[in-house]
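seq as requested:
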Amino acid sequence: MAVSSCCARIFPAFECRSDPEFPGNLKPEIPAGGRISGKVNSVPTRLFGANALSSLIPRNFVRQLSTQARRNCSNIGVAQIVAASSSNNNSTGFGGPTGAPAVGSITAVDAAPISAAEPNVELASSDDAVVLGDLSSAVKLSSSDSASLGDLRPSFLSSDGSIAIHAGERLGRGIVTDAITTPVVNTSAYFFKKSADLIDVKEGRHASFEYGRYGNPTTVVLEEKISALEGAESTLLLASGMCASTVMLLALVPAGGLIVTTTDCYRQARIFIETFLPKMGIRATVIDPADVEGLKAALDQNNVTIFFTESPTNPFLRCVDIQLVSELCHQKGALVCIDGTFATPLNQKALALGADLVLHSATKYIAGHNDVLAGCISGRKSLVSAVRNMHHILGGTLNPNAAYLIIRGMKTLHLRMQQQKTTAFRMAEILEAHPKVKCVYYPGLASHPEHELAKRQMSGFGGVVSFEIDGDLMTTAKFVDALKIAYIAPSFGGCESIVVQPAIMSYWDLSQSERLKYGIKDSLVRFSFGVEDFEDLKADILQALEAI
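struct tokens:
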């Protein structure tokens, strides 16, 4: 975090920490070459996991380090890992049995790729971490890529709400501090004390983010938090939802591959699939979200690489049978990626239903405050690693300050979502009964074509309701303009209610007949309910309807 200039007059200047002070009889033997030998006064090298190292450090070092760690230092060292492990290990206490696995022990994210074609190097595991160099330059890269799901979803946190608050933080993180909140690590690069340390990283014996595009400790906390909610092995954060979609497709679909997607979807994603990917030799087949036979035909007649769709979709909130399409696609060797932005990880577990990947525009509900852009993709480590390698090349890196805002936003995700979905459901029922509303699109209503499916695969139906006004373009615009609470703006999922008339907001460049090809009528309204009081929103919408 930035520190104002006045602080310099109050606090003494600080430097990145020096090497830890070990007790004399336990000090590691470091030869002139800089690498730790196989023994530390008869302690086997295998004991250089986080638990083992904690036994080599004085008890007061944890508090000393926590005090020293109140600064934005770009190098997170092994000594900090040890302090985090020992202070967060409640089962064994400080200096517990060296053979016991530690919560928050050393893990590693995918190293920056040397070339796009190379698979990610497997780095040190939590039990067998071998630290090379002089200890102070070592880095803990705690990531969902190598953490088990048990570590990400601890037994004492049974609800998604608690997971959203504490995952990635409560049991240890790669930044040691006694602050409750996760610090922001603002750095564009990570230094090495000597060339031998850099070579160790390049040859896979040691882990480092190396460069800001390849990772950041603050962002890793957010990745772990989302992985815990999704039940995923790995999560990758990117600069926007569209960045997540495009990088995922570029990474996983080869030239000559075929994408199957649905008619109702985010327009920019459809433009990318239908306009840009064909230039790279990638074809697309578009089907109705409920057209299972169309999917079967595409799988039988073509070598499909991936089925990519939203569920619920934008803007008609159609639902795809995730379990069924996953079974069909996997029988033919095709992947399934579900954009779950409208559902959130709280209301729908796409991975548990069989999808290979789940993607979100974290700009929306996950961040939840209309103040940050971000995207994320979660799933198996092997798939996310392939996307991560492409991301390392293309860029689109999430700023650590944005990661912090999303971490903060997720702590109220379950509270916001409860208010939003409750308000949306109640208003959907009211709108459906209103004489000036022709029809309502909301999965929670019995009139929705996939209502029974939504009840099976969702625990809540989200905070967005789409509906058609009984009128033309200008009548609908008059209704929108009469609203006093909702903002006329793109996006959705924030604390503030937002309303859009898609014919104007998203499809104004098309003629009316062209818009109708996508089902976009001039009278269509998409309303994203915020966390305002239900009665206030109800009164506002009803008075706006009376105004037309």
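The first helix runs from residue 7 to 10.
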